[in-house]
Every structure is written in structure tokens, then in C-alpha cells.
Please model this.
Amino acid sequence: MLIDTHCHLDAGEFDGDRAQVYAHALLHGVERIVVPAVAVDGFAGTKSTVAAYSRCVAAYGIHPLYVMQAGEDDLVQVGDWLDRERPVAVGEIGLDFHVPGIDAARQQSFFVAQLKLARARDLPVILHVRRAVDAVLRELRRVRVRGGIAHAFNGSPQQAAEFIKLGFKLGFGGAATYSGSTRIRQLAATLPIESIVLETDAPDIPPVWLNRGRNAPGELPRIAAEVAALRGMPPAALIAATGDNARGVLGFS
Model:
């Protein structure tokens, strides 16, 4: 099963042609699309998107780059949405130390609080780990959750192994299609097949052939073919394995 484990189909970039983007993805074999929210004020839009498009499933959480606009009441609302909607995961949550001037302590506070929400409900998490892999791992060891997906993984083999020990799959997408992304491509080629899943992060992280244009879930089959070529295996075998991995960690059929 071809599963896009990370696609912001609810984003404003798709407001003009969301139905066509979704239909194009299905036409090209994408069978499930995971839509992670990024802020409480967008939860209703995420819900509307997955309600309108039957192959989509939701995750709810506060993205680390949105915590500066969030308050304690937002965390209460996250818990309420998790209880009411029972999404496939809590996400997109995590840490992002790439942006200058970020408040690392505030990010960590919101991340830990959301890990606790996930643990209390036995839900997996969808992680954002940009320039913060060790810090994310440290919190995951302190607040054990059911596992989940480390989205757009770009760490070392040793860090990958630590995520795998904690029950996580590692997400690979458009970045793996660039010849200059040597570390990501090496990881995609050599990590155990049981540990990887596919994603687009649409509309972001476009594959090389889009020339920095808007990404879309319909690009996933070609991304799968690129990752399969890196691994020296047939695309169909990669799609089957990564689909099983995604369904196993997120708990849907």
C-alpha cells in the first residue's frame, strides 16, 4: 500500500485545487494520506479535509514553530481534540532549532506536554526533528510513548538506531531525490527496510524534478521509485514494505 505519511493537504497552498490534487494522488496509486495539523486554530480545517477526502486520516498537535503563538489553553484543546476525534497520531510535534532566535525552552515545554498527552491516550506521535535530533531523543527517553514517525529524518545512523529502538519509523521523501543529499540518500539506502516510511511533506520539500515548485501527494510514486533505486529493489516491494510499516506504527488498515 502506497501511503503518504506526512502531507499538509489542509494547507492554504491547496485551497484553489485541493480536490484535483487529491484525485491526482489517488489516480497515481496513493491509497492513504496522513494529514498532520500544526496549530489549534487549524484543527477544524484539518478535520474538514479528512472528512471530505476519504483516504485521508488526521493527526492533531502543535508544531514547534507555532508554539510562540500558543498558550496553555491550546494544550487543553489538543487533549480535547484527541479525546473527541481519536486521530491516528499526535502531531506534528517536536523541536526545531534551525530558525534563529527560537525559544528552545518553550518548544521543549510544549513538546513534553504533548508527549504526555500521547502517552496518556496510547497514541503514536509524528515528530518534527529539524536540527534537534539529540534533544528530541532525550525527551523521548524521559516520556515514553508508543512510537511513531520521525518525519523528514536527517540524522546519523547512530541516531536512527536510537529512534528505531524507541519504536519509531523514519520518514523519507523529496530530499532523498537530490544527489547532493548524501547522508539522507545513504540512510534511505541502508537502514533496515522495516524502519522506513514514505512521505511528501507537501506542499513543502519538493523532489528535485519540481525545481522548488509546490509539492503534492501525487509525487509519492516517483519518490518511492527513487528510494527503491537507492536500495536496489523493485518499487512495488518498497511500496508494500513501507505501507506495512506505516500501518503498523499508526494502527490503521
Q: What stands out?
A: The domain at 2-250 is CATH 3.20.20.140 (TIM Barrel).
